[in-house]
Amino acid sequence: MRLDPRLGGAAALRLLLAAHVVAAFEPITVGIAIGAASVLTGYLSYKDLYCRFAECCRSERPLNASALKQDLEEKLFGQHLATEVIVKALTGFKNNKNPKKPLTLSLHGWAGTGKNFVSQIVAENLHPKGLKSNFVHLFVSTLHFPHEQHIKLYQARNCYPDQLQRWIRGNVSACAGSVFIFDEMDKLHPGVIDAIKPFLDYYEQIDGVSYRKAIFIFLSNAGGDLITKTALDFWRAGRKREDIQLKDLEAVLSVGVFNNKHSGLWHSGLIDRNLIDYFIPFLPLEYRHVKMCVRAEMKARGSAVDEDVVTRVAEEMTFFPKDEKIYSDKGCKTVQSRLDFY
């Protein structure tokens, strides 16, 4: 981007802001103001100039797969499957100029295993502002639909489908590459999520809006017991957790959450219609992974890594099963608060 040496970025910004103020009064004047800014800054287009100072939807922006992989490998501990599948899924989807449907990922595992953290990393690699982006949208079931006792009333008034559909339609209309994160899926009333089924299906457009470049991510504790059972079976057989493959868990997960009334996907058409592209298991974390989390948190705080503190924090955690004590029952979820005591 070329800027006239006589006009600094601050001056260009003032012209841009002036154009926005004028926009409330007269579109023609807006064009003149933007045109002037474009000439003075090196014949930039309005969009180029605007996007220099404000966030723009860049649906066609290529994914830096190497950066995503590096982020996951360096910041996510004990989740080789999640790292592998997410890099593969996002790379393939973003490289496809004409996807037939949105990308839909369902992340499963106990609390503290990294699901929310991964959704944050994915958001940051798709939109520079990450979770603060205008094009990344977080839905929390216990926040947005907290009153279970009102569910029948909501359904009778068609509130659930209408609210969700309007929310998604409006955001995808603004940015085709919008990212939607549905947290606490296991606390969402059965059937609610099916309201968005048309948006995840193989439709070119719905009411003039294409959803094919959007990304939907579901986060759920449901299936954590199935994932733990598989991991424990491998451990007891003397096999490494890194030997666990997606095929060892994906089918079990999809069937398990489909038949689980508390999964948010109970008897869901999203599974029936194979609209969820990947069921991604997050394995329970071992003692060594908890120590990795402690070290990472200390570095994030700008503190020197004290291995004595690392060990003490890790040993304060509780582990299961009762006899073997292999897996942290809270993953790394309480590492931050426990580290506050040191």
TrEMBL record:
This is Torsin. The keyword Glycosyltransferase does not apply. Residues 1-24 form the signal peptide. GO terms for biological process: nuclear membrane organization; protein localization to nucleus. Gene3D superfamilies: P-loop containing nucleotide triphosphate hydrolases. Pfam families: TOR1A_C, Torsin. It is found in: Endomembrane system; Endoplasmic reticulum lumen; Nucleus. Residues 285-342 form the Torsin-1A C-terminal domain. InterPro entries: P-loop_NTPase, TOR1A_C, Torsin, Torsin_1/2. The keyword Disulfide bond does not apply. PANTHER family: TORSIN, TORSIN-1B. It catalyses: ATP + H2O = ADP + phosphate + H(+). Belongs to the ClpA/ClpB family. Torsin subfamily. Its main location: membrane. SUPFAM superfamilies: P-loop containing nucleoside triphosphate hydrolases. One of its GO terms (cellular component) is nuclear envelope. Keywords: ATP-binding, Endoplasmic reticulum, Glycoprotein, Hydrolase, Membrane, Nucleotide-binding, Nucleus, Signal. One of its GO terms (molecular function) is ATP binding. ATP binds at G109, W110, A111, G112, T113, G114, K115, N116.
